[in-house]
Amino acid sequence: MVTVCSYPHEFEVVPHAIFWRPLAYFTMDIRTETDDLDEFEGASFSIGNDISFDLRKYAGHPKFTVSVYLPMEIENQADIDRIIGRVIEEFDLPKTAVSWRRGWDFSSGKVVRDPEDRLHESEARTLFLKIAALQPKCRVTTAFAKKEVGRFYPLSPADRKPSSTRQREQLWQQIVGNVIVHKSLFTQGLAEQVRGGLKLTTKGLNYLKSIGFAALSASCE
Amino acid sequence: MPNTFHRRESRTQTPEDAKMQVKSGEVWGKEARWSSVLSVKAYTGQLVGRGIQFTTAIPPHPNQSPFEAHWYYPNTPGTMLRTKDGKDYAAISAVVVNHQA
């Protein structure tokens, strides 16, 4: 379980990974700060009692990326690998969303998005829940969810390919539409079907809390 | 060919700072809010927009990322200690071009 913290961690930090997802994808609990590098948007998280980390997007970082910052004391490559692996796992992040992590080669000033990175239905299901959590009564229509997806997920060229089964739709629109059609969120009890969309259940909200998206105090009331 | 770094104009990189950096041939940095580690921090690569761009013969600390470079005092060789108005700063020698004038 990854928990979003209300207060910033009080330690010097070092970036050890970059994800090709915006900060809004990971949490509702975003703060704006300035430090000696620049202005940034950030959030602090914990996994259990032993892992603390920040996600930050500095003003000079590319749009739709977020960097993972660990305490400076963590220098051992095996420890860094283990922690970054755990962060990816706890956020339920697709491997294709990882643009760089400590130990990988890189060119200064740029990272490249994995060309295979595109929205799959499992990630779209979670996105749907996240979008619902931000709406009154945690209720959202499919049409609204489709409008909002671009705020939380950077659509890739692979996402924008035409749907093979739905005329006038792109692949990502088909994938998001399938979330309701395939009913997986309803059979898992994470959401209830309502006219034109879904409503988050307590179980669904608790799932979003368990991946750090919603604060522990969040509710649908 | 030395690597290129930059700092964007911000509350911690003002036009006055840029003038001082060009004049002194040094880029300074202080500790982060929750830290006692003095460091110079900069973005890697070319500047786009307002700020300073610089090159330096001092290699950054190996913990740099694709987007950021750090020089810690005293842990990064070549990083110097400077004191102004009773406050300590980390500093590196650099050839600085001012794009904040």
Tell me the Rg of chain B in angstroms: 12 Å
Biggest interface reads: A-B, 31 and 31 residues
Q: Which structural class fits the helix and strand makeup of chain A?
A: alpha+beta
Which sequence of strands runs across the widest sheet of chain B? 5-3-1-4-8
Q: Could you estimate the helical fraction of the residues of chain A in percent? A: 25-40%
Give the termini distance of chain A in whole angstroms: 24 Å
Features:
heterodimer; A: 221 residues; alpha+beta; Arc Repressor Mutant, subunit A; seven-stranded antiparallel beta sheet; B: 101 residues; mainly beta; 1 helix
Descriptive overview:
The complex is a heterodimer of chains A (221) and B (101). Helices cover 30% and strands 24% of the residues of chain A. Chain A is of the alpha+beta class and 221 residues long. Chain A has two domains: 100 residues, no CATH class; 90 residues, Orthogonal Bundle (Arc Repressor Mutant, subunit A), CATH 1.10.10. In chain A, α3 crosses α4 and α3 packs across α5. Chain A starts with a strand and ends in an 11-residue tail after the last helix. Chain B has 101 residues and is mainly beta. Chain B starts with a strand and ends with a strand. The model of chain B has no long low-confidence stretch (mean pLDDT 94). Chain B contains one helix and eight strands, in the order βαβββββββ.
What secondary-structure arrangement, pairings included, does this model have?
The complex is a heterodimer of chains A (221) and B (101).
Chain A: E1 2-5, E2 13-19, H1 23-26, E3 31-34, E4 39-47, E5 51-58, E6 66-71, H2 77-90, E7 98-101, H3 121-133, E8 139-141, H4 142-152, H5 171-182, H6 184-187, E9 191-194, E10 197-200, H7 202-210
Antiparallel strand pairs in A: 1-4, 2-6, 2-7, 3-4, 4-5, 5-6, 8-10, 9-10
Chain B: E1 4-8, H1 15-24, E2 26-29, E3 38-44, E4 51-55, E5 68-73, E6 80-84, E7 87-93, E8 95-98
Antiparallel strand pairs in B: 1-3, 1-4, 2-7, 3-5, 4-8, 6-7
